[in-house]
């Protein structure tokens, strides 16, 4: 008999756990992990390649531990008069969130969010020995202010996590909700704006609230709108003291010289990389209307995906689509499925496959 987990001193709460992740399958139409479907142009590929070559010349040295130049570029990109000292960066916003819970969570501390929400949050809590508590979202996936305030008063969380737009529902939160939460939260409030650039007009970013709420942090990523998921770069804007707390828990040299150089090259090309966002937003809105025209329910979305349903056997629908070469995500509340917004051709393939599966 080979080695099993039972032979290892694996932490008891990790027994029976599966590594997180959507299936990575080799199918023609990938609409399952909310990527931007458009690869960089050859001109940007060349720019990135020369940045890598430049970084390669000093790979014998450790990279800038503070990633200072990159943080300056990110601050300039974010605007709102932010400086590099108010910006943090890590390998994806997943790592930014882990840093937040390492610094502000821990044994006998509570992290609070509102379900359904991003399924990695409870994992950061588990890994940092933080108690994970969820309040609830309303039927339309918004958060009721009174419920949120009551949950915070009851549980006194050291971290509140608010995804806006939320994954998997696509729901953006009004700033009035974020303000009400910041008014009562005893600890740090994190607004996860991974999909911020996809918001519909009239739902502003929580970045504008930073000057008023020193314990507010707004996290972003280059993985989605920026079409840079493979580059692994997430970042956060907050008071410089919050950032200093994250610097304590990060691993030394956590951002490789190559990551820093490639992310800076991508930021130099922000306009071109972000150019398809408007088009994706239009296609998202069309997808919502099309799903509703079939008699399905589709949640209003401010992100680059749509949660829709409801199906008595959602797995059968997911499998039917996969059998037709279209991979979407089986996630969210029972009966719902989530489709990421792809190219026009990919969405046409999705529509054709779904109509076949539903026999309509
Ligand atoms: N936050 C939310 C709400 C997400 O959906 C995701 C990715 N699915 C992330 C954070 C993490 O993204 P990344 O680590 O690629 O920045």
From TrEMBL:
Broad EC category: transferase
Pathway as given in its UniProt record: Amino-acid biosynthesis; L-histidine biosynthesis; L-histidine from 5-phospho-alpha-D-ribose 1-diphosphate: step 7/9
InterPro entries, alphabetized: Aminotrans_II_pyridoxalP_BS, Aminotransferase_I/II_large, HisP_aminotrans, PyrdxlP-dep_Trfase, PyrdxlP-dep_Trfase_major, PyrdxlP-dep_Trfase_small
Residues where N6-(pyridoxal phosphate)lysine is found: 224
EC numbers, comma separated: 2.6.1.9
Cofactor: pyridoxal 5'-phosphate
Span of the signal peptide: none
Domain Aminotransferase class I/classII large: 29-351
Protein origin, superkingdom: Bacteria
GO molecular function: histidinol-phosphate transaminase activity
Protein's UniProt keywords contain Transferase: yes
Keyword terms, alphabetized: Amino-acid biosynthesis, Aminotransferase, Histidine biosynthesis, Pyridoxal phosphate, Transferase
UniProt-listed Pfam families: Aminotran_1_2
Matches recorded under CDD domains: AAT_like
Catalyzed chemical reaction(s): L-histidinol phosphate + 2-oxoglutarate = 3-(imidazol-4-yl)-2-oxopropyl phosphate + L-glutamate
Subunit structure: Homodimer.
Family statement drawn from the similarity comment of this UniProt entry: Belongs to the class-II pyridoxal-phosphate-dependent aminotransferase family. Histidinol-phosphate aminotransferase subfamily.
The protein, known as: Histidinol-phosphate aminotransferase
Species whose genome carries this gene: Tenggerimyces flavus
